[in-house]
C-alpha cells in the first residue's frame, strides 16, 4: 500500500482540529456495505468482511471521505478475540484482522488523497461494547453481570492491538453503561493513543439507566479522552446530551446519532422514517458539538449534507 501524496503533518492532531472548530465524522459502515450488496446477517456483522472481502471495507471508507468526512471509523466495532474464536479464527489471525481494520481505513485515506482530496483525514479505531460481541442486543441494555475489572480484562487485549496499528484515535463507542465506560477508561491508560467516549442513550440517561451527567463525569479528568458524547441514538435526544456533556466535562463533544428509524430485531428490518436532518447539526454545534456525523442508516449523502452545512456555518 503506497501513496504519492503525503499524509497531513503529524502535528495536525484530531485534538488540535477539534480545538479549532467542527470536524465531520463518517456515517454507518453497515448500511454502506449493505447498499453495495453485501450480506451482513452474520453475528460478526461487518467484521466478517475483514477476512472475506477487505477491499469492500476500503471502498466504504472511501465513499465517506469523498462525501466530505474527515474521520473514518474502522470496521472493528464487532471484532473481538472471543467473537472470532466462535468462528474458528485463532488469536493470531484475530489480531491480524483487528490491525487490518485500521490499515484499510488508512488505505482509504491514502486513496482519497491520491484522488485529490485536500481536507484533513483521520482514522478512528472502533471499540464496541461487550454486548456487541454477544450479538443478542445487550449492547443496548448494558448490565451484563460482569464487574468493572472483568470488563477491563475483556477490552484491554484488543485495545492494545488496535493501538499498535497506529490509528489517530480510539473510538470507545455505543457504550450503554457507565460501568463499562469506567472499564474502558481504565483500559486505554498508557496506550499512547487518544480516545473519545460515546454513550448510547435513551432520553437523558444511558441505556442502562444512569443519569448522563454522572456518566459523562467519568471522563472529565481522563487525559486520554479528547471528546465525549453520544452515538447510535435518536436525533431528538442529541441536543440535550450535548449540552450536558459540554457542561460536565469541558471537552469537545462527539455526536453521531442514527437516522431516527427504529430497528425491529425480530423482523430484522428498519421501520419508520428518518428524522435526521443536516440542519440539526447547527444546534448541536452551538451547544458544544465539535465532532459530528451519523451512525445507523446515515449514509454518504447525509454526511455530505452535514459537511456542507458546517462549511456554510
Radius of gyration of CA atoms, rounded to a whole number = 18 Å
H/I helix tally: 13
How much strand? Answer: 15-25%
Largest sheet, strands/sense/barrel: 8 strands, parallel
Mean pLDDT: 90
Portion in helices: 40-55%
Stretches where pLDDT is under 50 for at least 5 consecutive residues are 1-10
Q: Span between N and C termini?
A: 37 Å
Query: What oligomerization state is this entry in?
Result: single chain
Q: Which structural class is indicated by helix and strand composition?
A: alpha/beta
Major β-sheet strand ordering:
1-12-9-8-5-4-3-2
Please outline what is shown here.
It is built from 13 helices and twelve strands. With 313 residues, the protein is α/β, with parallel strands linked by helices. The strands form three sheets. An eight-stranded parallel sheet has the order 1-12-9-8-5-4-3-2.
Q: Keywords, please?
A:
313 residues; two-stranded antiparallel sheet; 13 helices; 12 strands; disordered N terminus
